[in-house]
Design a protein that fits this description.
There is one protein chain. This protein is mostly helical. The protein has one domain: Chorismate Mutase Domain, subunit A (Up-down Bundle). The protein has 3 helices and no strands. The N and C termini lie far apart (48 Å). One of its GO terms (biological process) is chorismate metabolic process. Its EC number is 5.4.99.5. GO terms for molecular function: carbon-oxygen lyase activity; chorismate mutase activity. It is an enzyme of class 5 (isomerase).
Length: 99
């Protein structure tokens, strides 16, 4: 049963809800990845390279700011996003035939 953390009184409830949130996060990551796949298709048609440094900086800055908005460690989540971006760029490079 979905609960907020403050309403959990046992470790079983904590674990159940962490697993629920993790499942929801994976669904959001899957949705995010659908946009990465589509971006590669659009970039191919427009001749845009996989790595666009200005956009990379913007996405990292957004992650940092969004984390802090939720009282999270901005540096930590920016680094997670850096890994997501690196993975996406590698995928796009492969799709675009970039070295």
């Amino acid at each position: 049963m979905a609960k907020i953390a403050a309403d959990c009184t046992t470790m079983a409830e904590i674990r159940e809800n962490i697993d629920r949130v993790d499942h929801a996060l994976m669904a959001l990551f899957a949705e995010r990845w659908s946009f990465i796949r589509r971006a590669a298709e659009i970039k191919a048609g427009l001749g845009i390279p996989a790595d666009v440094p200005e956009r990379v900086r913007e996405v990292r800055d957004n992650a940092h700011r969004n984390a802090e908005t939720h009282a999270l460690d901005g540096d930590f989540y920016e680094e997670i996003w850096a890994q997501l971006i690196e993975h996406a760029i590698a995928y796009e490079k492969a799709q675009l035939g970039e070295a």
